[in-house]
Each structure stands twice: as structure tokens, then as C-alpha cells.
Design goal:
Oligomer: single chain
Distance between the termini: 32 Å
Radius of gyration: 20 Å
Structural class: mainly alpha
CATH topology: Four Helix Bundle (Hemerythrin (Met), subunit A)
Shape: elongated
Strand content: under 5%
Number of helices: 7
């Protein structure tokens, strides 16, 4: 991933967190205000950072993967429009990692009290943050690589139209690792 994308992602994370600070600036028990550090010591904030990472990193990977596959599809379909229907499936495959990140984030928001219930402790918040990392990181990387495999499959099908099933299988093998990462993240979230 390019440094600019990574810097932008983490800058947005910091900006979102800093925008939420005023809501935590209520007087503390000692009469003073909560510090910025105590804001980050909140279990809810830590778990929301995990949710943010799951959605954002897996979403970035999906966007990049779908973009790679889409560019190839556009070029090949310009030469042979009859392949358009087949290529929609290949182009859509890298999008699933973004959905997986959303699933993990949704489960964390249910468990951490954002959508009802009690707020998590700092320990629980840190746990949820780390539980989101498998799908965040694997989703980012696998979606990009799946987009490249899907693009190569499209080029293969452009030359030999009867190779579509193989192109899907090649791309689906990359998906296996995203599914395993989602499974681990979901199990970690639900078992807490």
C-alpha cells in the first residue's frame, strides 16, 4: 500500500478521535476535566478504533482490488462486449473483504455498548481492537491480490472463453484467507 494512503487513513482516525474529545470533557470526579489520554483509555473508544480499522483497511483493500479488476474488465470488454456479464462476477469478488470488515465492526459495536448495553472496560476495548486486526490487515492485503488475480483471470478468459470457471477458482482461492481472517475476528469478538 502506498505511504500516502496509509498516512491519510491514520490521519482520519486521529481526526475522528479528536473530534470526539469534547464529548468526554465533562468534569471528572476530582473536579477537573478528562485529559486527552483518558479519552484514549476508554474501552469504548479503543473498541471503536478496532471497528474503524476493520472497516477502513478492508474497505481500502476492496476498493483497490475492485479498481484493478475493473480496469482490466473495461479494457477487455471494449474489445469483446460479450464478456461483460462474466466479468461482473470476477470484478465483484475483491469487494467481499470490505463487507467482512463491516461485519466485524458491526459485531464490535453491538458488544461494546454503542448499540445498547454496557460500555466495555479498557481491557475489553483493547481486546476488541486486537480482535479486529485479523480482518483489517488480511482484508486489506488479500483484496488487492484478489483484484490482481481476477484481472489476470479476465485476460485468460479473453484469450480462451472456456476458462471462466478456472478464473473464478483462482480468484476464490485468495478469498479463502479473508474468510479465515473473518472467522478468527468473529470468534474472538463473540467469545469475549
Amino acid at each position: 500500500m502506498k505511504k500516502k494512503t496509509l498516512i491519510l487513513t491514520f490521519s482520519l482516525l486521529i481526526l475522528v478521535c479528536l473530534m470526539a474529545v469534547p464529548s468526554f470533557a465533562a468534569p471528572a470526579e476530582g473536579g477537573g476535566e478528562l485529559s486527552l489520554w483518558s479519552f484514549f483509555e476508554s474501552g469504548t473508544v479503543l473498541s471503536l478504533i478496532g471497528s474503524f480499522l476493520a472497516v477502513t483497511l478492508a474497505g481500502i483493500g476492496s476498493a483497490k482490488g475492485v479498481g484493478i479488476a475493473g480496469q482490466t474488465a473495461a479494457g477487455v470488454v471494449a474489445e469483446d462486449p460479450s464478456l461483460s456479464g462474466k466479468f461482473i462476477a470476477l470484478e465483484a469478488l475483491p469487494a467481499t473483504q470490505g463487507i467482512y470488515g463491516f461485519i466485524a465492526a458491526f459485531l464490535v459495536m453491538i458488544k461494546n455498548g454503542v448499540m445498547g448495553g454496557t460500555a466495555p472496560s479498557v481491557e475489553d476495548g483493547m481486546y476488541y481492537l486486537f480482535a479486529c486486526l485479523p480482518i483489517a490487515v488480511v482484508g486489506l492485503i488479500s483484496a488487492i491480490h484478489q483484484g490482481k488475480v481476477a484481472a489476470a483471470g479476465m485476460q485468460m478468459v479473453a484469450k480462451q472463453k472456456d476458462q471462466f470457471v478456472k478464473a473464478i477458482i483462482y480468484s476464490a482461492v485468495v478469498e479463502t484467507y479473508a474468510i479465515l481472517a473473518l472467522l478468527i475476528s468473529v470468534l474472538l469478538i463473540l467469545l469475549r
